[in-house]
Design goal:
alpha+beta; five-stranded mixed sheet; 29 strands; rod-shaped; disordered N terminus
């Protein structure tokens, strides 16, 4: 060592020796430790210090950082360890569902997609469906009977891949429930077989629906709609489609009662406009009341009778038989005519001479026009008319009651060869006459009751036309009043005698020959509706 270096060494030792006297023990150890850690010599710079400075200077005591350092190292190690653990768990959940994951009611926590599908398949394949039907207890179809199977469609795996593995901790904080469509398969031929074995598909349980209909309510005295009945006739094709759809959607029950098109339904329902129109129409029948007047006599047709003309089946359903109803109307009018028509009947007649004779009247009296009356009656029944009226007549008499001749008529007594004109019960004209020649059957004046056809003044009376084109006779008259074919009243100026027995052998061709003045008076008095009663 050179002298210079030796000198520096001595100075250094002197300073160190001096410094060590004032440095605490702990600090000295730190310093020594630092010196021990480094084998590299440090360059020492000498700084002269005076005695005064040495005496007053106190060196700072260094703090102990060793414990802090250890704590930091431990913390760092824990963080690293935790990070590694989190990463490891994240890796674990890379192909597994987070805790708290529920899929279609199955807890899939920690399960792989395959394990989750197996668990779901186990639950799904434990399948059965309950079928409810009308008026029957529910029945079950087990999934095993139709080869019901779970079919993977990749949705579970897709759901798993959608997870972010590093978010696995959320499974403990916010459990997740997934509901998704489960894809299944089943044997549809087996389903059809199972359906046919259900009670609701058995023939003995098939009850056809019944249409709504119109019936007469006796208590209300009116027609009403009786509602349709549902019945239980199952439409197998539609029932199968409904069941197929329910199973495809993995439903656990199906109610045929709430599926309207599974059962056969009534064709006519209570809300049918046509049915309501029928009720309204037939309630008019029940309201109708037609009172026929025949002078002082009346005949009333009302709903109680009309109802008996309608057709009903054994359960009270109205059968709309128009032909039958119309026939009953015709029969009623015919009965009315039979009881009140006088045309074509014989009447008792009290003659002026005091005799009572029976006179047949084929051209006089009351006669109902049956076709016209039936048509009017039908219309009134349908419209619910309430009225009092006469029937529709095709022929009318002067009055109702006894022999319907009334008090105004012409009495032609063929036996007495005398006539009387009664007006309001009083004789206003009487006269002898000569009637048809009794010696000839074809010239005899027929008895009966007639009315005037027409009257004409003057006129020419002609007999039958001959082959040569001429007439058997042509006789001019001043007053002509026919009432029975070619028979009528007329003047006969070629006769000088009337009455008596001339008619027996010298009578007319059938006409009533009258004196000129009497014929003239009758011509002025006679009316078209006055009965002409001819009798022997």
């Amino acid at each position: 060592m050179s002298n210079e270096n030796m000198k520096d060494h001595e100075n250094t030792e002197e300073i160190r020796s001096h410094s060590e006297e004032s440095i605490p023990e702990a600090s000295r150890e730190d310093i020594e430790g630092k010196e021990r850690k480094s084998a590299r010599p440090r360059k020492i710079t000498y700084v002269p210090i005076g005695d005064e400075e040495l005496e007053n200077t106190v060196l700072p005591v260094k703090k102990n950082h060793k414990k802090l350092k250890v704590t930091g190292i431990v913390a760092a190690m824990l963080v690293v360890t935790a990070g590694c653990a989190y990463a490891g768990i994240s890796y674990y959940y890379a192909d597994r569902f987070f805790e708290g994951t529920v899929i279609n009611g199955v807890d899939c926590s920690g399960k792989t997609a395959l394990e989750a599908e197996q668990a779901i398949a186990k639950k799904v394949e434990d399948y059965s469906i309950e079928i409810s039907a009308r008026n029957l207890d529910p029945q079950m179809i087990e999934g095993s009977k139709i080869n019901y199977k779970y079919a993977s469609d990749g949705k579970i795996l897709k759901l798993l891949k959608a997870q972010k593995p590093y978010k696995w901790v959320l499974g403990y904080i916010e459990p997740v429930t997934h509901t998704m469509e489960t894809h299944t398969t089943f044997d549809r031929d087996l389903l059809e077989t199972q359906l046919k074995e259900l009670s609701c598909a058995k023939e003995e349980n098939q009850v056809s629906p019944e249409n709504a209909y119109v019936a007469f309510n006796d208590q209300q005295s009116s027609f009403e709609i009786v509602p349709e009945t549902q019945g239980s006739k199952l439409l197998l094709k539609k029932a199968y489609m409904t069941l197929d759809e329910a199973i495809t959607e993995n439903k656990r029950n199906v109610d045929f009662n709430t599926t309207g098109d599974v059962y056969a339904s009534a064709e006519v329902k209570s809300d049918s406009p046509e049915l309501q129109q029928t009720v309204d129409a037939y309630n008019n029948f029940a309201k109708a009341s037609i009172t026929y007047t025949f002078g002082e006599e009346t005949v009333t047709l009302d709903g109680n009778t009309i109802k008996t003309w309608l057709q009903f089946d054994e359960k009270g359903q109205l059968l709309q038989d128009e032909a039958s109803f119309q026939q009953r109307v015709v029969e009623f009018v015919a009965q009315l005519a039979a009881q009140h028509d006088t045309v074509g009947t014989e009447r008792s007649f009290n003659t002026t001479s005091g005799r009572t004779v029976s006179v047949y009247g084929s051209a006089y009296g009351w006669k109902i026009d049956q076709a016209a009356e039936a048509a009017q009656l039908t219309q009134e029944i349908r419209s619910g008319t309430q009225t009092a009226r006469e029937p529709v007549y095709s022929m009318r008499a002067n009055s109702y009651g006894y022999n319907d001749l009334g008090s105004t008529y012409i009495e032609v007594d063929l036996s007495a060869q005398h006539l009387y004109y009664y007006q309001n019960g009083q004789i206003i004209l009487d006269s002898d006459f000569v009637s048809g020649n009794m010696a000839y059957a074809d010239r005899q004046t027929p008895s009966g009751i007639f009315t005037l056809y027409y009257k004409k003044s003057p006129d020419i009376l002609r007999g039958p036309k001959l082959p040569n084109g001429k007439y058997e006779y042509e006789t001019p008259v001043t007053y002509w009043m026919p009432f029975n074919g070619g028979i009528g009243f007329h003047d006969a100026t070629w006769r000088s005698d009337f009455g008596g027995e001339d008619y027996l052998s010298n009578g007319s061709h059938g006409c009533i020959n009258m004196p000129y003045d009497s014929a003239a008076a009758l011509y002025d008095l006679i009316q078209y509706d006055v009965p002409i009663v001819c009798f022997y």
